[in-house]
Amino acid sequence: MNITKCLSIATQKLWGGRFTNPIDSALEQLNASIQVDKRMYSEDINGSKAYCRVLILCKLLSEEEGNLICEGLDKIETEWRENLFVIKDNDEDIHTANERRLKELIGDVAAKLHTGRSRNDQVNTDMRLWLRSALSALEQLLKELVKIMVDRSYEEIDITMAGYTHLQRAQPVRWSHFLLSHAWNFKSDADKLDTIYKTTNVMSLGSGALAGNPFCIDRIKLAQDLGFEAITQNSMQAVGDRDFIAEFLFWSSLTGIHLSRLAEDLIIFSSKEFNFIEISDTFSTGSSLMPQKKNADSLELVRGIAGSLFGHCSSLMMTLKGLPSTYNKDLQNDKDIMFSAFDKLVSVLNVICGTIKTLKVNSNECRNALSFDMLATDLAYYLVRKGVSFRNAHHDVGKAIAIAEKRNICISDLTLEELQSINEHFQADAVNVWNYEASIEQYQTIGGTSRNSVIAQVDILKKWLCRHYISTKRS
């Protein structure tokens, strides 16, 4: 290939002026990110239009040139939206593609748009704009999930079930109390989005490649135009900053863990061994071999995807760990990770919402899982109310359990004489302990499983759901 042709190929790149040989085809493929970051076409165009307006204020563009650029960018956005945009071989990324197309539409004036701007500050800004919208979408899905759980909790408040620790029957609780225990996790996840939104909503545009912008653009006005609450204060830090992505990925990982733990509980409860709940056919699958099988695959997929969300988080953290200051091409993978985490969360949240909404609670099976040995703590509390220290009461009830197990009977079948042989404070009214509803209702303190305490939880969550959060405050 002659030097003239090599030079022509190389200089088609935005950065190609000093190159005399074309990029190797393998590197060309590895270097290109257009198939990933084209997802940010709207953010890239909106950022470019806002930047165009400040260039007009700086007299680096005339009003006529600025209008021409913005009109061209509007046409490009329409092409993307209507699936008419044609990606070409030299389109490395969304920024290159949009600039190339703009030049095709309006000519050489398009080359003025990049004045003082780098893809380093451009991509950081695009990602922040995209993530802002993504956080709003995720918050809405979390609120939907919490609402479904709150509504079920209120409607099914009288269903009682066994509560578990160490996967062993522990104490009787309300089904609603169990369901709300997960709802509070998701409420916490949604609340954390406020902090991530604030971290994300800081504009880096105007930082250039690393040293800043030499044309005295009004970055504050630019930020206001794009809806940012603040601007970065150090150009070197700004172009290499991916903390907002790392925070989002950690949040995604933690939210995935909360989803996974809920899924695990429901998988166990839907098994024949428990049979507390039945997953709807619409969120189940079968076996290709065993006709009788009905598998809770919706929940298993939720549980499995939680692991890949953690993998995304650790992947970016390890990338960031080894980077020197400012922008490095290692960061090109950040968008793929960010998009993937978002897509997976949207998918699993939609599935878990449908699964929770349509599952059936087998109230009789839940009730049948209760046994009087689960009221052993209540028997100890009985002694405490008679003036016995809890440690001694706990020890004496343990003795009673040992006697019952030796005789192969339930603790509730021990006679009053047998109980009094252990502790003289046992009286005839000890028989009142063997009442599941009374056991549940004694937990009246805030956060307990009594009816009033559960209704209080429902009321708090309903009020929270009625507030205006990210999507409404910042739309």
Task: Tell me what the structure shows.
With 475 residues, the chain is mainly α. The chain has three domains: 32-115, Fumarase C, Chain B, domain 1 (Orthogonal Bundle), CATH 1.10.275; 120-368 and 465-473, Fumarase/aspartase (Central domain) (Fumarase C, Chain A, domain 2, Up-down Bundle), CATH 1.20.200.10; 372-442, Fumarase/aspartase (C-terminal domain) (Ribonucleotide Reductase Protein R1, domain 1). The chain contains 20 helices and six strands. Helix 8 (175-200) packs parallel to helix 19. It starts with a helix and ends with a helix. Residues 1-11 and 469-475 have low confidence and may be disordered. Keywords: Lyase. This is Argininosuccinate lyase.
Task: Summarize this structure briefly.
With 475 residues, this protein is mostly helical. It has helices at residues 3-10, 25-31, 34-37, 41-57, 63-81, 94-106, 119-155, 175-200, 219-225, 235-240, 243-270, 297-321, 334-358, 363-368, 376-385, 390-407, 416-422, 436-441, 451-466, 470-473; strands at residues 160-165, 168-174, 202-203, 230-231, 277-278, 360-361. It has 3 domains: 32-115, Fumarase C, Chain B, domain 1, CATH 1.10.275.10; 120-368 and 465-473, Up-down Bundle (Fumarase C, Chain A, domain 2), CATH 1.20.200; 372-442, Ribonucleotide Reductase Protein R1, domain 1 (Orthogonal Bundle).
